[in-house]
Amino acid sequence: xxxxxxxxxxxxxxxxxxxxxxxxxxxxxxxxxxxxxxxxxxxxxxxxxxxxxxxxxxxxxxxxxxxxxxxxxxxxxxxxxxxxxxxxxxxxxxxxxxxxxxxxxxxxxxxxxxxxxxxxxxxxxxxxxxxxxxxxxxxxxxxxxxxxxxxxxxxxxxxxxxxxxxxxxxxxxxxxxxxxxxxxxxxxxxxx
Length: 192
Prior knowledge:
Elements: H1 7-11, H2 15-39, H3 44-60, H4 68-76, H5 90-108, H6 114-134, H7 140-145, H8 147-162, H9 169-182
Helix pairs in contact: 2-3, 2-5, 2-6, 2-9, 5-6, 6-8
């Protein structure tokens, strides 16, 4: 695990903040799952998008009800096995799924680790992408110097700052708008 200045802040988040933080990282990176689904000519991206939309509705629409058990079963059914594919795109897609599992866990368990797990997964996606490009392993010190890492850390710090505000549907919607305005994933793929 990366020892980062934000780790303590992540584990001290309230339950709703954990959920929204994880949802924001999923929103940023759903394109990884979408592109993978397109590459294997699967319709699974629409299932993933619908589930993510339900999470946002749960947090912003008063009285919104979600059967997490059924949705998690639906989601688990579309998680790819990395060993079934021989191209890189499966790895960011699986990382997206890990972050989405963190969202489910944030709603269904009392774990204080979900935002931290989502954060670390996002950085792992960046590390594996850089290793793919350079064809060599990257250590923590080198990773901390990488522009993609620096951008992602800054984004996560911004999310944490936004989450310090009082909970409201408007705040949560503004976080989603902020993420969509980035127009790229954690590894720099355009979301337009």
